[in-house]
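User:
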Amino acid sequence: MLRRLINTLPALLILQMLLPLSISAARIKDIAQIEGVRSNQLVGYGLVIGLNGTGDSNGTQFTIQSLVNMMERLGVTVNRDDVKVDNVAAVIVTAELPPFAKTGTTIDVLVSSIGDADSLAGGSLLMTPLKAPDGNIYAVAQGPLIVGSLAFGGKAAKVQKNHPTVGRLPGGALVEREVPFALNPDSQLRYQLAEPDFTTVSRIAAVINKHFQSPLASPIDSASLNVTIPLPYRERLVEFIAALEGLPVQPDAIAKIVVNEKTGTIVMGEGVRIATVAVSHGNLNLIISESAEISQPYPFSMGETVAIPQTDIAASEEEGNLVVLQMGVSIGDVAQALNAIGATPRDLIAIFQAIKASGALHAELVVL
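Assistant: Predicted structure:
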């Protein structure tokens, strides 16, 4: 029994060391990426056809012009004045070309109406070239739309569910041109952090150097670091990047409190700390009610019935509770203390702003 316990003790110690790291740490690929490896935005103008009378009206001139031009390119001569576009809608097609996308692969596209169409449900997108800012065509989109909404109605009533003038084409665009990018195995790799932080970039360099037992990584600033490709991996660059990006790192960040006054949302980070401060909270309730007192004249008095408005105003203020928050309390203590005084989310926003103004809040307050 003792020998079995001795044999399993090293495994338990290793599991105990790795468990907190796997829970709280993030992979390098989740917080940093190689410089130049990025997606590119594409945009194009097209037509959606096959709509059941929910397309653009005849007042949308660019839809009529686009339809006439398309018919002429197909060898059909039409009179512009005879064209009706009830079943056609002009749209803008957008997509993102992911890095290393190869010719022949497919990408998702988003189709949005730019005219006065009522709905794109049931329509099909005609062949639409998608261009990048350099003016080159990188993909071509075509196919039936998935709208996931409906809109029906008449002159007096209308029923609508979700947003009927925007649709998607999963895998609806075919990549026609690749973005040139090649990894040079004879040079260094430069990684860029999604959230610049000196502590995080220092930890990434330390983890890389420790794993490969060599000083390969050197931080440049808070947002980037260089990684030297070791000689054994010069011919196995993909394997080296995969091993490097899978290393766990504990990222660091500035303590923040993000509040949205429009929705009453409050999000506090783990590192939020406050100094000793006293908070008092009290609600002032003002109730205004109106009623009408009817003055009825006597019969045959030739008088008129008059409604005399009556206004009642009542003001009340709830008893305020003074709560003392000690220095260095954690986010849980802050939430518990503020909940104890019955503060609503909108009241908490005002309280945090007041604590920040007093200099007792050791965190960045972001108001959306």
